[in-house]
Amino acid sequence: MRQHNLSSSPSHDITRYFYESSLPSQHEMLGQIVTEILRSGKRLNRKTICTKLVHRLEVSGSAEEERRYRELIGLLPGR
């Protein structure tokens, strides 16, 4: 059964849909991070990727962006 959010309006839903669809995919986000690390001359390893992801998580502009960064952090394998 589907529950409806009573505080949601059609215009808010449309705005959210277009914003979320404009966000890059996980692959694109990770690619941007890897490119930034390589261009900065730092070593590419799990620690630098995680550090960059955490920084982006801290400055994320929306809940959806934050969710995507958390998912990427969760994909990093542990030791």
Descriptive account of the structure:
The chain has about 80 residues and is mainly α. About 65% of the residues lie in helices and about 0% in strands. It has 4 helices and no strands. Helix 2 (about 25-40) packs across helix 3 (about 45-60) and helix 3 (about 45-60) packs antiparallel against helix 4. The longest helix has 14 residues, at about 25-40. The model has no long low-confidence stretch (mean pLDDT about 80).
In N-to-C order, the SSE pattern is HHHH
Record field, number of beta strands? 0
Distance between the termini: 41 Å
In terms of per-residue confidence, which ranges show pLDDT below 50 for 5 or more consecutive residues?
none
Helix content: 55-70%
Give the count of helical stretches. 4
User: Averaging pLDDT over every residue, what do you get?
Assistant: 82
- Approximately what portion of the residues adopt beta-strand conformation? under 5%
